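Support request, please re-run this one:
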Amino acid sequence: MPVTRTDSFRPPSIADIDLGGFWGERIDAVSSRTVRILYDRCVTAGMLDQVDPARPVPELRLPFMIKDGFTAGTVTTQMFWDSDLAKVIEAAAYAVYRQRDPALEADIDALIDMFARLQQPDGYCNSWYIRMQPGRRWTNLRDCHELYCAGHLIEAAVAWVQATGKRTLLDVMCRYVDHIGTVFGPGEGQLPGYCGHEEIELALVRLSRETGRRDYMDLAKFFIDARGTQPHYFDDEARRDGRDPKAFHFKTYEYNQSHLPVREQKTVVGHAVRAMYLYSGMADIAAEYGDDSLTDALEILWDDLCGRQMYLTGGIGPAASNEGFTGAYDLPNDTAYAETCASIGLAFWASRMLGRGPNRRFADIMERAIYNGALAGLSQDGATFFYENPLESHGNHHRWVWHHCPCCPPNIARMIGAIGTYMYGVSDHDVAVHLYGESTARLKVAGAALTLKQGGDYPWAETVSFGISLDRPARFVLHLRVPEWATTAELKVNGAVVAAKAGNSGYLTIDRDWADGDSVTLHLPMTARLIHPHPRIRADTGRVALMRGPLVYCAEAADNGADLDLMTMGLAPKGVKTAAVAELGGAIALDLDVALESDAAWGKAIYATNPPKAETAVRRFIPYHLWDNRTPGEMLVWVRRAVDA
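Re-run finished. Output below.
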């Protein structure tokens, strides 16, 4: 049986959820197009040449990064190709589960066989250190992603066995983790180390739940507990390897969140993706072990991130220099880094914070990050990608087909493929619905087999319905999230209005005896609303943004022409009309009145004592995640507020 606490909420497996509607369409795009693109581009990049032990050892294809104290041969993005391939395997698992593709399945099986043949007799399995730099294993965890690669391969193995029933990769990774468990730990002769790029922590939890191996869960806990303790592992590691501990590019262990033990960290710092993966693992361990000290630390970090360092879209990490955080309220729009992987990581973290029970505080942010900051990373047709996600573009930011560090494309593909596992949480006597969307969930609760069929065209439509099928009557609690943006909510059970209030959790709680054929309907009014920024966000001073439901909206030149920054809006949206945009798959656009400044009567002066003339005009706003899917051009989220507003 999986290792879990009986009072924790567990996500369903991929095989427990079928998706339709909004997410079904996106999963179909990923399944039918994106995953094959990802695999083919990995082949073109030469990744399989490095993994396959039957081929000659290839030459280096991507250069080492040698600057600011990095010594020759320290870091190249090629050394974490295993992780890119692993994410492709995981995305492929969800794709072939969705729609069987014998050719893709055969290609992935062949790739998995390469890893199986690559594995060393002691269980070690990393293509870079077996084939490219043999004899260097476990010498530079700080920079070289060794355990990070293992983590992604673990997640791929779990996904592949769940989707196909094939155990080869799972068996490979269990042997690898058994080896890792002999190398790292608190025991005599073991290394008290952890990875510079977090990932293995959350992966080990997932492996433990799949296999029932408690030692895998304990190893995840060790990596979290050891992080940032003194004497500092990365200092000792560097000395053993003949390196100066202070000679590394980022000069501070804040970069990889190892500057303090995790329970003492109060501010979100460093590389954004690494931080999100660490906090995800911490949240998993907090739920599994009932560890309030971890939960307390995470609550503080959550408040810092979401209260001072997050974009409206759920994008995080404004700076390209460290792919991460800078300081409170530093959220520039046109230069925003806001890596797709970082928003995905935020969704991971939020989802795992729900492991200790339903809480709108986390689920609302999960929804925002998924629908906006993360989903923008994949084009509508599933073929091109964003790495950075600015909130303003002057027309020079476009989707690309590949990247020298191709972490984001397979990451967004695997997240979309597994989106059903984020929608629900199950404990012994409770079912929580965290995200809404057309789906069928097959769950076990209160000793009964429950099929929960969710309908409604969310996020476009306002009403969500649930049909309940049970193999026998059962009493359990159904928790339905009422998003903070929904000022009212109407609940019906079997057609009758039920007086229910969202408690401190922000979820409507229905505790009753359920029978086969019961139904529930939830109405969440969606109106266009203006969002105002915190006064300390200098980039947004005097500006407002537009949202409807969970979606952030933007204006795009494709609908409105250039010079988007000439628009101004008052304190309330005016003349709002909705329209389905066929070329964006029927997405709901918002048409509304704005004031449009003009320089037609301005004259030759560059400055004047009188303001420019303005006239009312109608402008169209589309969901942010759909921008740059048509004619390239300007884009704007934060619109200037009218002077008299």
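The first strand starts at residue 17 and ends at 19. Residues 529-641 form one domain.
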